[in-house]
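Hi W.,

Here's what went into the run:
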Amino acid sequence: MNFKSGHLLGLEYVDNDDIELILKSTKSFREILDRPIKKVPTLQGKTVVNLFFEPSTRTRISFELAEKRLSADSVNFSTSTSSVKKGETLLDTARNIEAMKIDMVVIRHQSPGAAHFLALNLDANIINAGDGAHEHPTQALLDMVTIAEHHKSFKGLKVGIVGDIAHSRVALSNIHGLRKMGAKITLCGPATLIPREVERLGVDICYNIDDLIADVDVLNVLRIQLERQDSGFFPSLREYHQYFGITRERLEKATKPITIMHPGPINRGVEISSDVADSEHSVILNQVTNGVAVRMAILYLLAGGEHESN
Amino acid sequence: MEFRVKAKLVTSEDLRRIVTRLAHEIIERNRGINDLVIVGLLTRGAYLAHRIAKKIEEIEGKPVPTGDLDVTLYRDDFRTRLKQPDVQVTNIKFQIDEKNVMLVDDVLFTGRTVRAALDALMDFGRPNRIHLAVLVDRGHRELPIKADFVGKNIPTSIGEEVRVKLTEVDQEDCVYLVEAVEEEK
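Here's what came out:
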């Protein structure tokens, strides 16, 4: 079966069959990571450029590892050392890189739509590694793979997403992906960080973390960006922790164990307490391992076969 | 493309006897089953591998470690195919270092799948030796590869195909010879 698009721009634009294809293929790539020699020759001769206009450790390393495990050649680009500092536009940077005969581009950019923009202007396969507050599809896919390892089906599964929904591309990609697979999503956080009209995406909203905990199977805890503290969305990190922080005392009130996820990096003692982050129900490190496998699956699916549309 | 069945070359009874014979031959050649492991190529080679392993266990009274190998990621036609093959999950839960590996596939044709399988196996370790067992050898090799154990030699023309059916995934146990039917314009 072929992946329909030649790009992965966001889960809003990927249909159920293709999401299932990614989740299924990921199992094959996950197995490779447990081998003595963690490398297959599949993408020999393909060149992937990792264009990172925003700081990133986990996502960049994860993509780079996925590329190397598939034997692709990869080149890294980050703004701190590039001509962007000299005033080059995104399009010029991308065209110049494409002129060097590359096959795929992984892009992280502060502007929503940056990946779409490249897809419209370049022949290479484009993978969105986060565009502003829009989407971060590979993060949502690795979240879904991790959920599928711990729960039988997405159908009717109750997933809570807690934190700064308004500024979160992880939340938006999770909402699109999980909703398509039949999960029920409830958002939770301070009212200032829940976007207006977000119910239109087919999600519920809950302002009380204890009510949410009583009802969900999975909690995806988002990072509170420390710089937001001074922008008036909530009074203090301490108060955020008191009202929305995931703690062992809160989880102990739940009638069933809840799978705890976090896209990282964690602020221990803010959105999640240390003992919960390290508890037996936390799958945070499984998410990281699955991230490499999911990215291998996506690189594989985009690089081979004919795609219906670009 | 449409296919027409030309002949049923192996019946379910024949298949049962072939599996039994291959099991005996494998035990004889390896002088027992110490250090023997079996790896079947997904999909039908893997089912055959498990059948042979079961037969060997019946004969020798001891189980043989058996695993499944998917060679999709090692194929040489990744760049040229329009249809992308689905990857399946490799499952080899044992060490192959210093072992005698029995590689099992359903049909040996160009030899390219076996080439890919040899590369894949080398990523799991350094076996003592690798033998190849196939249910059907239909000729037309494109690489210098030869089977050590053959269920049935079936000389074919290039327009024909050999279809192995196994009850684990199909309705029946048998082998058909089929040929492409020219579509009427």
